[in-house]
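Format notes (please read before filing issues)

Several people have asked whether sequences and C-alpha cells are stored in separate files. They are not. Every record keeps both together, in the order shown below: the sequence lines, then the C-alpha cell lines. Line labels are part of the format and must not be stripped during preprocessing.
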Amino acid sequence: MQSQTPVVHQINNGQDLELCLTNLMVPNSDIIKQAEGVIKGFLKHKECLAGFVQQIQHSQNAGVRQLSAVLMRLKLKKHWKKIEGTTREEIKLALLNSLLQEPTHIVRTSIIQTVGVLATYEISTWPDLSKFLMQCVQHEQASFRETGLSLFQVLIEYVGEEMLGNFNQLIGVLQKGLADQDVSVRIASLKALRHLVLEVGGDEQIEAVIQLIPAIVEALKKCIAENRNEEAVNSFEIFDELVEHKSETFDSIIPHLINFMFELALNTNLTTELREKATIFVEWCISYKPKLIIKLGVSKHIIECALKIMSENREEELEDDYEEDEDENTPYGIGSSLLDATAVDLPSKYVFQDIVERAVVLVQSQNQFERRAGITALGLIAEGCQEAVKGNLEQVIKFIGTGFNDNSRIVRGCAILAISSLAEYCQPEILDFGGDLLPFIIHCLDDKLFEIREKSAYTLDIFTQHMDPATLNNYLQPIMTKIMSLLTNGDRKTQEVSIATLSAMASASGKFFVPYFETVITLMKQIMEAEGQDILQLKARATECVGIVAFAVGKEIFGPYVDGFMRLAMANIEKNSVSEYKEYTFMFFESVAMTLGADFKVYVEPITNYVLSQLSQENLLEIEDSGTGIEAMGSALADDDIEEDDDDEGGFDGNNMKLSVRTSVIDEKTSAISAIGQFAKATGPAFSPFLHQALDAIIDSADNFHYALRRQSATSIRNMLYATIPTAEELKDSVINVSEEQGKIIDKIMDTLVTILKDDEDKETVARACESIIEIANRFGLIPLEAHVEDIMSAVITLLQQKAPCNQTEMDEEGDHDIVLMDSVSDTVDTIAKLLGKDFAPHFAKVFPELIKYAQPNRPIGDRIMALGTICESLNSLQENMAPYVKHVLPLVLKSVQDSHYNAQRNALYGCGVISFFCKDEVQPHVMQLLQAIYPIFADIPKYNKAVVDNACGAIARFIACKLEMPLSQVVPVWCNALPLREDFEEGPICYTSLILLLLSENNDIAQHIPLIIQKLANGLTLPNEQMKPEVRQSIADSLKQFASKYPQQFSQIASTLSQQEQEALQKL
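Then the structure lines:
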C-alpha cells in the first residue's frame, strides 16, 4: 500500500509553505498542479517575501531553498516597496547571513541573484552589503571568496554605476581574485570582469582594466589546464570588448595576445569552440586595428596560422555518411573565417601575394585537406582582393581548376565553391572563362554525392546571373536535362535543390526558357497541389519557381495560368502558416506583380491586406528560458501573476531569459517588404489605398535592429513613389503640381533615406539607400529630390570622409574600401550631377576635395577608378562650369591614361575628352601631351582592353568635335583605323558625329583621308541596332547623301572600293 503525499490547501505558516514547495517537485502531475494553484495565490501577497526568506534560512531541502530564492527574486518588484522598513532590514540581513551558511553552490547562486535584484532598490541604504562583500573576498575559505566575487559580478550587472563609485577597490579585489589558488575563485573573478568591461567609462578606468590583462591571461591558462572550458570560452568576451577601445597600452599588449591566441588556436587538443574564440579575437584585432596589425608585421603569421588550421586532417569528413552541419564549428571553418577577415579588412597589397604563394603550395600537396585549404583560400580572397584577383584571374582559375577532377570529394566540393566566389566578385571578367568552367559545373550537377550536387547548383546560380541569356542558351539544354532527371528521380533534398536551380535558370535565361515552360509549370503545379507536412519545403520552392518562370517568359505566355496559380497559392498559404512557406509565397506574389504590371491591380487588395497583416505581427524575437529545473519552474509560476506596476524602476530580472531571433520570421518579413514594394511599383495609383499603411510599415522596418529588414526597407521604400506621383516618362513635358499630401509622402520617403545614409551602421543598407536615391532621380527627376539635395550631398561627403557610422575605419588612405558601398556613393554623386547639370557647381565645390583624395597614386586601384569616374562624369554635367577644376584634373587624367588597370584608363580617357570638349581653351596648350598619352593605345590595339580602345576613340572624337587644334592629317587615319567600336557603344554617337563633321568640313588637311572616313561611315550603317542608335544611323545617311550630292563622281569612285556589305548599305540610302 502506497503512502499518500500530504497536500496543502492554504499557506498559513512556514511548514505549509515548505510542504507546498516540496510538492512542486514530486513526480505526480496532480499533486504538482494542486500545489501550483496554492503557490500562485500565495505569490499575490507581500508576505510571501518573508516566507521565502524563512525557507531559505531554515529548510533542510536544497530544492525548497533554491525555489524560494528564485520566487522571491521574481516577486521583489511587485512587493518590496509595500513592506515595512523594519521587515526590509530583517530580510536584507537574513539574505546575507544565508549566503554565509548555505552549503549548496546552486542555491548560493540563486540567493546571490536575489541580492543583486534587491540591490537595485536598496544599494544606497545598505551599508552592510559592502562590509559583507569585503569580509567574503578576504575570507580564508575559498567558498566564501568565490561567493564574494560572484556577488560582485551580480552587483556590477545590476547596479554598475554605484559599484564603479568604488572602482579602485573593485579593481583590487578582482586582481587578487585572478591570482587566487582556487580555480572557482579565479573563474568568479573572470566572470566579474566580463561584466565590468561592459560598464567601465573613461580612459582611466579602461586603462586600469587593461593593466589586468597579463593576470587575466594567466588565470585563463589555468582555467584551460583544469578543463574548465565553458568558463574559459566566456572569458574571451573581456578581450573582445577591450579591443574596440583606443589605447596605446592595449596596443602594446596585442602582439603577446595574438601569440597566446594562436597557441590556443593551433592546439588540436582543445575544444573547437575554444579555438574559435581565440581566432575570433584575432579577427576583431584585424577589424578594429588594421594599421597596428600592418605595423606589427603579423599579417603573414596570421595567414600562415589560418591556413594551418584549415589544413587539419578530420578523418570523419571522409566517411560515406558524413553530412556537413552548418552550425558545426570545424577547424576548416574557423580557419577560413580568419583568412576571409584578413583578406577583407587588410589592404590587398599586404596580404594578396602572401595568401596566393602559400595557397599555390598547398594546392599541389599530396594531402587532400591541404589541397582543400589552398583552393578555398584562392576563392576566399576574391571578395577582399577583388582587383588583384581580377588582374591574375587566369592563374587563379588555373590553380582552382586542379580540384575539378580531384579524387577527393572534399577537394572537388571546395573547387566548385571557389568558382562561385569568383563568379560573385570578379564580374564581368569571369565570364570570359565560362567556356572552360560551365561544362565542369554542369557535369557535377548529377554527381553521386549530394554535397557536390548542391554546391554545383549554387555555383551555377551565381555564375549564370551575370551571363548574357543568348550565351546561356547554348548550355540550357544539358542543364535542363540533368535538372529534370534529378527532380523526377532524386531524393527530397535533391528535388529541393533542383527546383532552386530551375528558378535560377529561368531567371538568367529569360525568353529562352519558353521551350521548357509547359513541362516545368505542369510539374510545379503537381507539387503545389500535393499534401503533407513533409513536402512543405518542396511546395514552397515550387511556388517561388512558378513566379520566377512567369517573369522569365512574360505576361503573354503566363497570362492564361495566372488566376489558377494565384488561387492555389492563397489556398496553400492559408493552410500552411509556417514562416518559410509564407516567405516563398510572398516571393511568388512579387514575381507575378512584376510580370503583370498594372494588370496586377485585380489582386492587389486581398494580397496586400494579407501581406501587411503578416508584416504587422510582432514576432521577431523569442524569449527562451535558459534556466533549467527549479529556475524554469519559478519563472513559470511567477509569470502567471503578471500585473501592471506603476513603479517600473529597477527589479528587472532576465538572469535566466535569453532573447533569440526567429530567423525564419526575419526572412518572411524581408520577403513581405520586398513584395509590398513591387505591388506599389506594378500598380501605381491603384495601390494608393494601402500607401500610408505600407509606407509606415517600411519606415518602421528601416529602423529595425536586424540588418536584413533595414536593407530591404532601404530598397522597397523608393517604390512607394510609384503610387504617389507620375514618373518623368509618364509626365513627359507636362508639369505636375505636387499636392500637400503628396509632398508629405515624398518627404517621409526622402527623410528616411537620408537618415539611413547618415546613421545606419550597415554598409549594404547605406548602399541600398544610395541605389534608391539613384532610381528615384532616374525615374522621377528632380521633383522628389529638389528639397533634399543639400542633405543628400552632405551625407555623401561624410561617407567619402569615412566618418559615417557605417564606414569609420583606420585605413582611411590605404584601405580597400567596400566596393559596393563606395560605388553606390559615387553613383549618387554622378546621378545628382546629371540631374542638376550646370547647377551642380556649388555642390561639386564641396565634394571635389574629398573625391580628389581617392584619385591619388597611393590609393588602392578601386578608389582611383571610382574617383576618376565620378569626377569626370560630374565635369561632363558641369560643362563649361568645370573650368576652375581643369588645372587639377587634367594632370591626373593624363597620368592615368597609362594606368595598369583598364578601368582607370577608361575613366581617364573619358575625362580627357570631356574636359577638352567643354574647356577647349584651357586644354589647347596641352594638346600634344594628350595625343602622346593616347597614341600608344592606337599603336598596339591588341594589347589593350577593347573598351579602353573605344574610350580612346571617344576622346579623339571629342577633340575633333570641339575643333581642338591638332595635326589632323596624322591623327585621323590612326583614329579611323581603331573604328568601329568593339565594346563601349555609348561612344558611338560622338565618334560618328565627328566623322560626319570631318566629311563635311572641306578641310584640306584631311582631304586625302575622305575615302577612309566614308568607309567608316558606311561601315556604321552595317552595324546592328544594339550598336548603332537610330538617330545616329539617320545622321550618317543624311551626311553621305549630302556628300554624294555635292561630289557624285568622287563618292561613286570611293563607294566602288567598299566591301559588298558596305556597298549594299549605301545603295539603301
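For reference, the curators noted about this record: Strands lie at 621-625, 657-661. Confidence is low (pLDDT under 50) at residues 641-657.
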